Amino acid sequence: MHLHLAHLPDDSLESVAAPLTLGCHRLEGGVLITVIGEVDITNADRLQRYVREQMLPGKPAVLDLSLLTFMDSNGGRVLKSLHTTLRDEGTSLHLAGVHGISARLLQIIGLWPLLNIHASAADAVIDVLGHQPAPLRGEPEHL
Length: 143
What we know:
The chain has about 140 residues and is α/β, with parallel strands linked by helices. Helix content is about 30%, strand content about 30%. It contains four helices and seven strands; from the N terminus they run ββββαβαβαβα. The protein has helices at about 45-55, 75-90, 100-110, 120-130; strands spanning about 5, 15, 20-25, 30-40, 60-70, 95, 115-120. Helix 1 (about 45-55) packs parallel to helix 2 (about 75-90). The longest helix is centred in the middle third of the chain and has 16 residues, at about 75-90. The chain is globular.
């Protein structure tokens, strides 16, 4: 677990939330959520709330974790909870770009074989949609 501490003038310590940036792109058949930074005890609940707010009823969710630099067991707990919630709704959670310590954590706690894990966000989106997504409006199409 990474715990960031800030020194306050009176020499007391205050826990500072790990840096976490979240973004969402609505797909024609679900959502793609980008997770950047660290997920730990200080912000795992924020990740869970954000994903639940962005989810579309009955539609799959893709979490792009390729820019995730750290995840502790609290992040694993959130992924398990989201997986269970989506499965109970008849849909699925897909993880993309899982690497490093996050991949190792999911293997150690036994979640790796239960989750839909893809090499990249593009692979996950293609699996979810069943086809290549249309280019985003205003962005050039890359051939």
